[in-house]
Design goal:
The chain has one domain (2-69). Helices cover 28% and strands 14% of the residues. It is built from two helices and three strands. It has helices spanning 29-42, 60-69, and strands at 2-4, 12-15, 46-50. Strand 1 (2-4) and strand 2 form a beta hairpin. The chain is globular, with a radius of gyration of 15 Å.
């Protein structure tokens, strides 16, 4: 997905909604990230690529290590609040 960086200027950022690679196919994860990076930089006005890692499926630290190996740096953290059923 490509979206406005500041919602008032031309620069854009590319981001994932989510990536999923099964345990069986995890060897393909670096290539998936490479393809996303290539696609993002081919888009006009993209100045930033933002990716997220979550523990919703597996331990996110493995994903974070892959992103760092690809040149990404951590910026902050993500927090979530879940609705508690009554």
């Amino acid at each position: 997905m490509v979206d406005d960086l500041y919602h008032v200027l031309q620069p854009k950022y590319a981001t994932d909604l989510f990536f999923y690679v099964s345990e069986r196919d995890q060897v393909n994860a670096p290539g998936l990230i490479d393809a996303f990076i290539d696609w993002a930089w081919s888009e006009p006005n993209v100045v930033s690529i933002r990716l997220c890692a979550t523990d919703a499926v597996v331990d996110y630290t493995r994903t974070a290590k892959l992103y760092k190996r690809k040149g990404f740096v951590q910026e902050g953290e993500m927090y979530e609040m879940k609705r508690i059923s009554k």
